[in-house]
Structures are given as C-alpha cells and as structure tokens.
Design goal:
Bound molecules: 1-O-pyrophosphono-5-O-phosphono-alpha-D-ribofuranose
Structural class: alpha/beta
Mean pLDDT: 89
Number of strands: 9
Distance between the termini: 39 Å
Radius of gyration: 17 Å
Length: about 190
C-alpha cells in the first residue's frame, strides 16, 4: 500500500520551537549521500597505518558518528574539546584545549573531524597543538567550509560542502546550544 503521509514542512518542525528558518541548506538525504562519499574517499586514502579519528566537540558529534560508520577499515575514535571564548561572550581570539584525547597520538594517522570551518581560528590553533604530538600524518575532514577564512594555515584534505556565509544550525551545529539535533542543516532568519 502506498503511503499517503506527506513529509512535515520545516516551518512546522516542532524541534525548532517556533524559530523561523530561512532555508534548508542541506537536507538529510544530501548529507547522507555526501557523508558516504567522504567515507569512501577516506577509506581509499588510508591504505595502511593506525587511523585515529579525532572529533572536535561538540559540533562534530553527529557528523563524526555517521562518518566513521562509512569508513571501511580499522580505526580508533577519540575526541577533543576546545574553548574558543575567553569569558563566554566575547571572542578572545584564543583557542584552548579543555579536554585532551586520552589516546597516544605519536605515530598515528590522525584525522581531525570538524563540523565547520568559519574563521579558521580553531583549526589553526588545534593543528599546531596536534603537530607537536608527532603523529605520522595529520589531516582535516570538515563537513562544511565557508571559504572565508583568512590566514588559514592548514587546508582540509576532505571537505563535505562549501557552505554559504549564513548562520547554520542542525546536524551538530547550534545556536546557543539549541538545534544540534536537527537531521538537516538550515540557516536561521
Ligand atoms: C564552532 C564550530 C567549529 C568552530 C569553527 O565551534 O563547531 O568548531 O566554531 O569556527 P572558526 O573556524 O571560526 O574557529 P564552537 O566554538 O561554537 O563550539 P561547538 O563545536 O561546541 O559548537
């Protein structure tokens, strides 16, 4: 029997608690297709070695969990937590590690997984810290890249999508800690 249930429009999505969405930038199917492709690209790029997938919390948590299930080789997973704001409201321009991975990084092939590259400040700082741990290789996989970062010292080897310069939420990305659980990525009004 053919289903007559129609998908709920984004405007009626109860997860948005009435907040208006300008548009859906990447829908669920588009994300799943691209994440599967990234998984294949990453599988093909790492023919040997100990791959450690390092997710930068919190934004990467959904992307990372989908991505690692599309990588068809042995790997380990760990996480980093960075704080980018000194007093929680005004950007201090510094990025500090507030959780350090427990796993040994030396000699491993590290893939740092980010949800979005915006100013590039987070990546510049974290990559410098991680390089000091003497990994065998160190690469970046970013789901979204706004391509607006000036002075980006490390380019991402794997990028899901070039992203519009809009305020994006969903699939891990937040606004004041809300909307991370949306299965799609939308821009807020
Ligand atoms: C956001 C995002 C990236 C970073 C990108 O993290 O998740 O990690 O900013 O911005 P940049 O390129 O300008 O440095 P945020 O500090 O908001 O923390 P979150 O991941 O916990 O949301």
């Amino acid at each position: 029997m053919t289903s007559t249930i129609k998908p709920v429009g984004v405007k009626a999505d109860p997860r948005l608690s009435g907040r208006a969405v300008k548009r859906v930038a990447f829908d669920e199917g588009t994300l799943a297709t691209r994440v599967a492709e990234l998984g294949r690209e990453i599988t093909a790029a790492y023919l040997d070695g100990d791959l450690l997938v390092l997710g930068l919390l919190k934004g990467s948590f959904i992307f990372l969990s989908d991505l690692v299930r599309q990588i068809n080789r042995p790997l380990q997973v760990d996480f980093l937590v960075a704080s980018s704001y000194g007093d929680g409201t005004v950007s201090s321009g510094t990025v500090n590690l507030v959780y350090d991975p427990e796993t040994e990084l030396e000699g491993k092939d590290i893939l740092l997984v980010e949800d979005i590259v915006d100013s590039g400040r987070t990546l510049n700082r974290l990559m410098t810290i991680l390089k000091e741990r003497k990994p065998r290789s160190l690469e970046i996989c970013a789901l979204l890249h706004k391509r607006i970062a000036e002075g980006l010292k490390f380019e991402a080897k794997f990028v899901g999508f070039d992203a519009p310069n809009e305020f994006l939420v969903g699939y891990g990305l937040d606004h004041a800690e809300n909307f991370r659980h949306l299965p799609y990525i939308a821009s807020l009004q």
